[in-house]
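Researcher: Quick test of sequence recovery. Tokens follow.
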């Protein structure tokens, strides 16, 4: 299948890209890694008049520290880099763990962090991971820059807070404590397929052997990443034991609202949600400073 005809533009800067988006944002598509957009074009599910390729925009693939010490990842950072860059892996190992679950190496080599977040597939790993990491998404548009929390960025399946004419330029993160543990666990029908459900977790166990910080976000169990707002209340101050993680998984199972589709029923996804939640929390607790369960 071939895409419909379109004009192609390859701007060199964010300002140039915004100018190209300006006149008719609804008829213009942004191209990042193309791993979701190209199939949509080929199937004629998207028929833009203009495609603006971000591949040559200077600085969008940068990984930097902000003056405040946050990690700033440009939207064009490739998924494969999240997985393999030793410095990034050391700072945010949860991102590397998540990236390796995205599709196959060839797809991750082209696919970008920003493309995955802007595409907002409910079963995608990176949106849930950025939600677990409490990332902030930096969007530029004709009226300047906006910073949107991950909790407010994802609005529904393939829907985000990016307005027509705006571009996602970066994601900012506070790197988790060095001795926090991390894990992304998922169940997929085959290696490289989208997950039926998954969970991204960060756990920090204090010197007293009790959890002092935990973050969790699920994918594939609703229209946006599911972040339980009761996790601190249930987990902080508790010993990092399997029984606790199982109870948290059961509460997640009872609260998520997954869909039935051709791959799995909603009921099955709920059960998977309980299992991956318990597994991700246990693996994260075991990995951190070694104070979790063996
Ligand atoms: C066979 C296959 C299997 C896959 N399996 C998985 C999987 O298991 N897990 C998973 O998470 N993903 C999976 N994907 C999707 C893939 O990882 C894509 O990389 C990702 O969804 C989109 O990233 P991209 O950089 O390719 O974006 P593109 O395809 O270029 O763009 C995606 C969408 O985001 C918009 N966009 C991109 N960048 C920006 C920006 N900076 N600002 C505003 N809008 C923007 C585009 O206009 C488009 O609408 C799979 C894809 C394929 C082909």
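Model:
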């Amino acid at each position: 299948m071939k895409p419909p005809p379109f004009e192609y533009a390859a701007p060199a800067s964010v300002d140039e890209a915004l100018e190209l988006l300006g006149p008719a944002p609804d008829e213009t598509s942004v191209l990042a890694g193309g791993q979701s957009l190209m199939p949509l074009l080929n199937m004629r599910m998207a028929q833009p008049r203009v495609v603006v390729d971000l591949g040559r925009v200077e600085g969008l693939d940068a990984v930097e520290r902000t003056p405040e010490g946050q990690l700033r990842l440009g939207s064009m950072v490739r998924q494969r880099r999240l997985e393999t860059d030793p410095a990034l892996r050391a700072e945010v190992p949860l991102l590397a763990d998540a990236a390796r679950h995205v599709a196959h190496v060839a797809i991750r080599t082209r696919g970008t962090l920003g493309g995955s977040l802007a595409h907002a597939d409910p079963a995608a790993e990176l949106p849930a991971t950025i939600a677990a990491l409490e990332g902030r998404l930096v969007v530029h548009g004709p009226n300047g820059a906006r910073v949107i929390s991950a909790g407010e960025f994802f609005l529904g399946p393939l829907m985000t807070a990016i307005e027509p004419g705006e571009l996602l330029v970066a994601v900012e993160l506070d790197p988790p404590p060095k001795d926090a543990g991390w894990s992304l666990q998922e169940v997929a029908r085959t290696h490289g397929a989208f997950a039926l459900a998954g969970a991204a977790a960060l756990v920090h166990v204090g010197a007293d052997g009790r959890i002092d910080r935990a973050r969790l976000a699920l994918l594939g169990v609703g229209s946006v990443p599911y972040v339980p707002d009761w996790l601190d209340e249930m987990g902080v101050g508790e010993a990092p034991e399997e029984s606790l993680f199982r109870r948290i998984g059961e509460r997640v199972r009872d609260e998520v609202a997954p869909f039935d589709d051709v791959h799995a029923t909603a009921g099955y996804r709920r059960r998977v949600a309980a299992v991956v939640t318990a597994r991700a929390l246990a693996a994260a607790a075991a990995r951190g400073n070694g104070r979790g369960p063996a």
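The CA atoms of residues 60 and 74 lie 5 Å apart.
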